[in-house]
Amino acid sequence: LLDSAGAVAPTIFAELSARAAETGAINLGQGFPDEDGPTEVLEAARSAIASGRNQYPPGRGVPELLEAVAEHQERFYGIHLDPRTEIIATAGATEALTAALLALLSPGDEVVVFEPFYDSYAAAIALAGARLVPVRLAWPDFQPDTAELERAVTNRTRAILVNDPHNPTGAVFSDAVRRSIVDLAARNDAVIITDEVYEHLVWGAPHRPIATLPGAAERTVSISSGGKTFSATGWKIGWLTAPEDLVTAVLTVKQYLTYANGSPLQPAIARGLRLPDEFFSELGRDMHARSTVLGDGLEAAGLSISRPAGTYFTVADVSPLGHEDAAAFCRALPEKVGVIGVPVSAFVTPEHDEEYRSLVRFAACKKVDVLEQATSRLAKLR
Ligand code: PMP
Ligand code: GLN
């Protein structure tokens, strides 16, 4: 995690957002919206601050948020949870993931991870002293090969780390894939840790949490966050749900990572989780429309794309433009045409770098005119 001079290496997102600020390029790199979320949620935070909710909240989370998460899981997925024992609030999904991995892994344990993967996964697995075993998601549909998955999961596997809907590919796993994950976890007595932060950013079928599959709930730690659903990525309010014994294990780590977090923001996210159904369905429709503008624009600029089924992201292949090295392409892009994208190689293990070499991830969570401007700039590369 240090560079050759011994300095902390910035994450790919920090590096690219700094480049965007320096060059004035349109930032389709780091995934954050350029508009605020629902006014009810913003207003609830203001009023929580004004009413003095500014000291440490309970370590497990503010009861209102824990209850709102339980209601949300019941309303959308029919999952019943006890907010006192089966849910904790965290500093974003990131802390939930790190605390779960540190709590449940021992040095030398294997964790099966779908590659490409969100950047914090490898770092948290390394902190736990465990070993990441990648299962590739291949262009263009990014579904795992079930034979490869079966080979990867063994009696050394302590956890299968799922991210569905998936960053960076925009893929949504099929039910057959979800079933085989649950089956393999059960056969090898592994836990499933599932990152579902894009649960409401899907089009097509409604999101199906892996915890709802038969035999899954008792071994699954589910993680989500208010960042994406309420367009408040900077608030870092997340949550984790699991059977009580797993929650207790995670809490032992969480209480010394941050102890507690986001006192006035937790009730505001609770307010958001209680918004009417229409808010949530509109969120998916709206992101689909933006994603279509981005995808159509990338195709018009001569790139080939994998059409996502959800998330903020679209992966494009830049080889039709004559570029084989997406990392070099992305480094030159801000100066050349004023756009930022992330090379997919930032999300893979060095052994598999070659397979993803010409792929770039672009974010669609921006105003439509910004997306149009970005893709018309890319069209000048032809
Ligand atoms: N998991 C995935 C797949 C993500 O894309 C992100 C952030 N974009 C996170 C976790 C982190 O979420 P948070 O900001 O709530 O920590
Ligand atoms: N999750 C966001 C992305 O994938 C970035 C979050 C971060 O900067 N760590 O773009």
UniProtKB/TrEMBL annotation:
Query: What are the names of the required cofactors?
Result: pyridoxal 5'-phosphate
Spell out the CDD domains in the cross-references: AAT_like
Aminotransferase class I/classII large domain boundaries: 25-364
Report the GO molecular function annotations.
Answer: kynurenine-oxoglutarate transaminase activity; pyridoxal phosphate binding
SUPFAM superfamilies, A to Z: PLP-dependent transferases
Any one GO cellular component localisation term in the record: cytoplasm
Q: What keywords appear on the UniProt entry?
A: Aminotransferase, Pyridoxal phosphate, Transferase
Q: Which InterPro entries has this protein been placed in? A: Aminotransferase_I/II_large, Kynurenine-oxoglutarate_AT, PyrdxlP-dep_Trfase, PyrdxlP-dep_Trfase_major, PyrdxlP-dep_Trfase_small
Membership in a protein family: Belongs to the class-I pyridoxal-phosphate-dependent aminotransferase family.
- Name under which the protein is recorded: Aminotransferase
